[in-house]
Design goal:
Blueprint: E1 2-3, E2 10-14, H1 19-31, E3 33-39, H2 45-56, E4 60-65, E5 68-74, E6 86-87, H3 92-102, E7 109-113, H4 116-119, H5 124-132, E8 136-140, E9 143-149, E10 153-154, E11 157-159, H6 165-175, E12 178-179, E13 182-185, H7 193-200, E14 205-207, E15 211-214, E16 224-226, H8 231-243, E17 248-255, H9 262-270, E18 273-282, E19 285-293, E20 301-302, H10 314-322, E21 326-330, H11 343-352, E22 357-361, E23 364-369, E24 377-380, H12 385-397, E25 402-405, H13 417-432
Parallel strand pairs: 2-17, 3-16, 6-7, 10-12, 11-13, 20-21, 24-25
Antiparallel strand pairs: 1-25, 3-5, 4-5, 7-9, 8-9, 13-15, 14-15, 17-19, 18-19, 21-23, 22-23
Helix pairs in contact: 1-2, 1-3, 1-7, 3-6, 5-6, 8-10, 8-12, 10-11, 11-12
Length: 433
């Protein structure tokens, strides 16, 4: 797919429901007693895999329209093994959270599989703590397929070696079934959607500065879940409006959980002009509307504690930094190498192909910013939705446009991305005329 440059970005938009919260809404709804209604569901290949997974486990899910679901839960201990592998497709959140849930379905056996990309991602970081809790788990050298022989679980206190909301969530979910309280200690704060939703469902959660504790539970009662707009889906448009001179963009109903919006803090340091207004809560999460204006950016350094708060947006940070004044640096981001692609190398190769000055390091990259438009060219997405979207935003800011290889992979998280981008371009060009 080829994306052409744009002079400026003007208009209003709303992005799909938050993918992380949508996964959890379906999984926790499946464990609930009675009906859970989900509105604002973020539909994507990943979240549809979650719907199919809970259906395989005996849960009824009615899809009333594009973003409304009715889930008839089986109770905390009522999931039933389908007697065949459960396909998690490319969804890392699904496979890790589901492992924690299924480890508690005592007396049953399950097998989780995924596509080639998911099968290359590490599972030991989940299986190791769950094994300490008494779960019987088997992998192929730390990768999928994953066999689960559900047995009685015991509580643990576990220090995460690497900050990961997915691993934290898997342990907390297994802790619902354990004897005694289960505590996860984090090296730095990560997304807390699991804690917020479990609290809303009646689970006793204790949160401290660097840890979270869950008590065993007998039932979950969610009722209704409203999903706010996905900040990670808004982020490409935020960077586009920042880079294109004369831009004025409004994004409505976005999740502004502070453990998700590290990019806004980074942009503020760089001189970005993003204003939050109409603050409110959507589905128990802080949310609001964004006003983004173009800005001349200056370099900054992003260090380890900020990485989990902006993990999905770090490729976009690299693009912004490559167009800024001065030298920027990302450190402490080894986790990027264990995503759908090696996102350190994928980001560096993508931007270098457009003439940008980016060098990979073991835990991130170094960037020499040049405040001009990238020259354009061709980007290989490596089948990674974040890199494909990076290519599209780089194209808007480029001099000559960008050809994106395997652009269709955006469907993993944001199926309507290119359609929304085309609508915004049409609006912007019409106003320009």
């Amino acid at each position: 797919m080829r994306v052409e440059p744009l002079k400026r970005l003007v208009g209003h938009l709303a992005v799909p429901g938050d993918k992380s919260i949508s996964h959890r809404a379906v999984l926790f709804g499946a464990l609930g007693d009675g009906e859970t209604r989900v509105t604002g569901f973020g539909r994507s290949a990943d979240t549809e895999a979650t719907i199919e997974a809970v259906r395989a486990l005996g849960v009824t899910v009615y899809e009333h329209d594009h973003d409304t679901l009715r889930i008839f839960g089986k109770g905390l201990r009522g999931l039933v093994s389908p007697g065949r592998p459960i396909d998690c497709a490319n969804a890392g959140t699904l496979v890790r959270l589901l492992t924690g849930i299924l480890a508690g379905q005592n007396g049953q056996q399950f097998e989780l599989t995924g596509d080639a990309s998911l099968s290359a991602r590490p599972m030991k970081r989940v299986t190791e703590p769950l094994s300490r809790m008494g779960a019987a788990l088997e992998t192929e050298d730390g990768h999928l397929p994953l066999g689960i022989d559900a047995r009685p679980l015991r509580s643990i206190t576990y220090e995460l070696p690497v900050a990961s909301a997915q691993v934290k969530s898997a342990i907390l979910l297994a802790g619902l079934y354990a004897t005694g309280e289960t505590t996860v200690v984090e090296p730095t704060p990560t997304r807390d959607h699991t804690e917020l939703m479990l609290e809303a469902a009646g689970v006793t959660i204790t949160r401290r500065e660097s840890s979270v504790t869950v008590q065993p539970a007998e039932r979950l009662d969610l009722g209704e879940i409203e999903v706010p707009g996905d900040f990670s889906s808004a982020a490409p448009f935020i960077i586009a409006a920042t880079l294109l001179p004369g831009s004025e963009l409004h994004i409505h109903g976005v999740n502004l959980n502070p453990r998700r919006t590290g990019l806004l803090t980074i942009l503020e340091r760089m001189g970005g002009r993003v204003t939050v207004y109409n603050r409110r809560r959507i589905g128990g999460e802080p949310a609001g509307d964004l006003d983004i204006r173009s800005a001349d950016l200056v370099a900054t350094t992003v260090l380890g504690p900020e990485v989990p708060l902006a993990i999905d947006e770090l490729p976009l940070f690299a693009l912004a930094a490559s167009c800024a004044h001065g030298n920027s640096r990302l450190r402490g981001a080894e986790e990027l190498r264990a995503k759908e692609s090696d996102r350190v190398e994928a980001t560096v190769d993508a931007l270098r192909s457009l003439g940008q000055h980016v060098i990979a390091t073991e835990d991130g990259f170094r960037i020499r910013g040049v405040p001009t438009r990238p020259r354009g060219g061709r980007i290989e997405s490596r089948g990674d939705h974040r890199i494909a979207m990076l290519g599209a935003i780089a194209a808007l800011a480029s001099a000559d446009g960008v050809e994106i290889d395997d652009a269709e992979c955006v469907a993993v998280s944001f199926p309507g991305f290119f359609e929304l981008l085309a609508q915004l371009k049409e609006t912007s060009e019409r106003q320009e005329a």
